[in-house]
Design brief:
Length: 276
């Protein structure tokens, strides 16, 4: 097709939305005008969304789901696009996390969102507002998304969740002692679930620690791999399984060096009692 713009779904979440929309349209052999007629908009509007020049509204995404029979797939993706407080790459990562069969994460310095209590998440959000890093609205978006992600773990069947926490996650005080006590209780409860493994990587590992930065590895239902990591200004979602395999190998090594689950829970319980 002449002048058909090539789409790069890795460029941004909006580009990924547009590429997916175009793929389904092409599969049905519809022109942009024909799809627009079915959706009650112009072909030019479809073109603008497909090429990322116009972000999809929630109403637009709902109509796409209705026309293509995709459940709420596009609506969820458009909702992730509106999470403006989040680093680039993370909203798309969340859509994959909600489908993953296995989740492996390593965190440093702070309890990860999947395990945070509401109070812990709120304290972190309040801190970003006070420091001028985020607006109140943006902080609330992050808190709401953490709650949404935790709810997705309750799906059937639930994913297997492996968590390695650097010891710094436990020793960094957030809020008052009551807040931390509740957070430690939450960690112990999480560790007792049948589909989870929680371990602590103590400072004593030293140079045997195979990774120093937070990372998450997803195993999808079809057994493909993805990884997600963040720098100070953006996130990176790696979709190539071959590129993720070395990260997975390092993660397995980290698990071998970390404390066993029972010893990890014992450490958390001691901190909860105020006896580090």
């Amino acid at each position: 097709m002449v002048n058909r713009k090539e789409l790069d779904p890795e460029k941004s979440p909006g580009a990924a939305f547009g590429q997916r929309l175009r793929t389904l349209r092409d599969e049905r052999g519809w022109t942009q005008d024909e799809l627009g007629e079915r959706m009650g908009c112009s072909g030019a509007h479809i073109s603008a969304v497909e090429t990322g020049r116009r972000p999809p509204t929630q109403r637009f995404a709902k109509t796409v789901d209705k026309v293509f029979g995709t459940g709420d797939r596009f609506e969820r993706q458009s909702r992730a696009l509106r999470q403006t407080a989040l680093l680039e790459g993370f909203p798309e990562y969340v859509t994959h996390e909600a489908r993953a069969a296995e989740i492996r994460l390593y965190e440093v310095g702070v309890i990860p969102g999947l395990l945070q209590t509401q109070e812990y998440a709120s304290a972190l959000g309040d801190s970003t507002v006070k420091r001028g890093v985020a607006s109140r609205e943006q902080a609330d978006e992050r808190i709401a998304l953490a709650k949404q992600r935790q709810a997705s773990l309750a799906r059937t069947p639930p994913p297997l969740v492996f968590v390695v926490l650097d010891e710094s996650c436990l020793l960094r005080p957030i809020g008052d002692s009551a807040l931390m006590d509740a957070q430690f209780t939450r960690l112990v409860e999480f560790a007792e679930l049948p589909n989870t493994v929680l371990q602590v990587a103590p400072f004593g590992i030293g140079v045997r620690r195979p990774m120093t930065l937070p990372v998450t590895v997803l195993t999808m239902p079809e057994r493909s791999l993805m990884s997600y990591a963040e720098s100070a200004n953006r996130g990176h979602l790696e979709r190539d399984s071959a590129s993720v395999l070395p990260i997975l190998a390092d993660y397995h090594q980290l698990q071998a060096e970390a404390l066993p689950r029972a010893a990890s829970v014992a450490m958390i319980s001691q901190l909860r009692k105020g006896t580090p």
